[in-house]
Amino acid sequence: MFEFELQATDGRARAGTFHTPHGTVRTPVFMPVGTQATVKAVSPRDLHDLGASVVLANTYHLYLRPGDERIARLGGLHAFMAWDGPILTDSGGFQVFSLAARRKVDDDGVTFRSHIDGSEHRFTPEKAIAIQENLGADIIVCFDECAPPDDYAYNTAALARTHAWAERCRAAKSRPDQALFGIVQGGVFPDLREQSARFLTSLGFDGYAIGGLSVGETKAEMHAVLELLDPLLPPDRPRYLMGVGTPQDLVEGVARGVDMFDCVLPTRMARNGSALTGRPAPDEPGRPGRLNLRNARFADDPGPLVEGCTCYTCTHFSRAYLHHLVKANEILGHHLLTLHNLHLMLTVAREMREAILEGRFVEVWRRYTGSSSSSPWGD
Amino acid sequence: MFEFELQATDGRARAGTFHTPHGTVRTPVFMPVGTQATVKAVSPRDLHDLGASVVLANTYHLYLRPGDERIARLGGLHAFMAWDGPILTDSGGFQVFSLAARRKVDDDGVTFRSHIDGSEHRFTPEKAIAIQENLGADIIVCFDECAPPDDYAYNTAALARTHAWAERCRAAKSRPDQALFGIVQGGVFPDLREQSARFLTSLGFDGYAIGGLSVGETKAEMHAVLELLDPLLPPDRPRYLMGVGTPQDLVEGVARGVDMFDCVLPTRMARNGSALTGRPAPDEPGRPGRLNLRNARFADDPGPLVEGCTCYTCTHFSRAYLHHLVKANEILGHHLLTLHNLHLMLTVAREMREAILEGRFVEVWRRYTGSSSSSPWGD
């Protein structure tokens, strides 16, 4: 179980298969986010039809509501949300540290107040693993401390805790049917990132998550970290870039050896009335191209969101209809835009995989980045 | 076109087929309501999977937003909402008269203010037909005045207008690919209802809608009106009971000669977090049985909404999961409850049809009303 087979490389880009108790994940892969045990605005059969193979759920949210022990009694997360494919749960670390004034960290763990009712709770590495064992995902991750990417002193102290907690998570883990991923931290600092990769790989995990990115640093800084980590992480384990990103981030990440991604961007953007185009934004470097369907210019537009897109939304509905749904605040607008945005992200991942297997990854990288460079590797 | 074939009767209950340019409607039929050119929280492919054959859309809402002329330019309502089955549009009368203080009626029409932006508009019979011709539904209905059911003087005056407007609608109608239904009004008053049925059938319409019911009168009063109208309406035309109702209302309506129904109840109830059970409410006479999924007693309930229900929701998800979705205000909760409630209403209609064709309608009537009477006809 949890064998990762590296099937092909193309430059630094990798195509592989990762075996889990609920099926095989073919990488590169994008994982839709189901924070509260539902990928917002779509059903499990929609996800299946879209070709999603693995979804993410959030430990922090499910611990608070409906409760991990309740989910365990109801047969675990797969049965609860009726998703029989692989699931990954995060550790709750990112959410807890995002609570800012509502949490207090010490070397043993974090005490925090619920965003729902203000009640006080405490996560330790052992507790984060216990919750994730109750939830029962195929892939669980170590409890870590997320620091602002550019504060060296903070990152040094946080990294010490993250490493100590990784050892404790490893010791606390008891279920053989769950893969445990370590999380590499260290902000934008090469020495810390290297130290983190060396320490975690010395412990040995089923896979390696890369945390603390896409939280304010520049794209160049993110890419530099990925380039640094690529040779430091074992080739025979999957690498998961947490909370990233746009179609452009995906191809840039894969170009630097990443296998797995998750992000709320496609689903959140959909609920805000926007559709991803798959192209970079023309006038906003680093931002994904998007159509804001609230814009009056779409009111009479009979065309699809994206010409040539094969998703249900683009093959059946006009921009004019989607504009109407968004303006009228109809749930179907959220649903159809979510289908399109997820289809696009899953398509980017699938196209990269096919291209890597055929040795033409650069082609896909160029299409989504809009770059005319001969390769992402500067050669 | 628009031929209604009466295939079987069982007591007063009727099974028939109604032919339209976008397909054949098999009656008795329940029509999901797509007020703003979307049945809330489900997609056209969901409706198709549910076995919905015809949907309703609201003239008043679509006239205001996105505008009937815009929909005409975009190819009509079928193309706009990507529903290639039959569509029925109401006349806007009910909505306009529901605006209460925001509208003013005269013999020529109604002036009203938009609920969206307060702008002033005017509907006349000719305008209501012109809008419905722009929308392009298969079945359109006459512009009528809806009066409170128990005010005789008001109903007398309103009926005179409704009849005059029915003649004007008939004269204004120009599209041969649309069926026009007259609307029988007259509140709870037998003489007015009889007068209305006689007048409208003398004009001759493709079908007859029964308006002004389920607006405050008792069930017994509604049933008495239907029993009065059954022999007065031509057997070779469909009868459509507007805005009704619950599973129990459907079987009681069919038991009194009605063929078509529409109601927001199943979709609205779903968005309020409630599921129809199909049974009458145990302690609330005249109300449909329902489960309020917000109720904490469902938090640990692993069972389906309704034991034995074959809908996607009941075959995949527990009451505990639906409770969680509703509490967490997740769109998937609205979606899954809508699927269940629509499935139930469509199943009631389909079971009635099958039973009428096999001469055992009373069986179905007993199951949904919970009655132990030998028949709904008192014999």
Descriptive notes:
The structure is a homodimer of 379-residue chains. In chain A, strand 11, helix 8 (190-203) and strand 12 (207-210) form a beta-alpha-beta unit. Chain A has helices at residues 44-50, 59-64, 68-73, 77-81, 93-98, 125-135, 152-172, 190-203, 219-229, 247-254, 265-271, 312-316, 319-327, 331-357, 361-369, and strands spanning 4-10, 13-20, 23-27, 29-31, 55-57, 87-89, 103-106, 109-113, 120-123, 139-141, 179-184, 207-210, 239-241, 260-262, 274-280, 288-292. The first copy, chain A, is globular and about 60 Å long. In chain A, the strands form 5 sheets. A 6-stranded parallel β-sheet of chain A has the order 4-14-13-12-11-10. In chain A, strands 1-2-3 form a 3-stranded antiparallel β-sheet. Chain A has 2 domains: 4-263, Queuine tRNA-ribosyltransferase-like (TIM Barrel, Alpha-Beta Barrel), CATH 3.20.20; 271-369, no CATH class. Helices cover 40% and strands 19% of the residues of chain A. By secondary structure, chain A is an alpha/beta fold. Chain A binds chain B through residues 36-38, 40-45, 65-66, 70, 73-75, 80-82, 299-300, 302, 312, 316-318, 320-321, 323-325, 327-328, 330-332, 334-336, and chain B through 36-38, 40-45, 65-66, 70, 73-75, 80-82, 299-300, 302, 312, 316-318, 320-321, 323-325, 327-328, 330-332, 334-336.
Total strand count of chain A, please?
Answer: 16
Quaternary structure of the protein: homodimer
The number of helical runs of chain A is 15
Rg estimate of chain A, integer Å? 20 Å
| Shape by Cα distribution of chain A | globular
**Helix percent band of chain A:** 40-55%
User: Which chain pair has the greatest contact?
Assistant: A-B, 38 and 38 residues
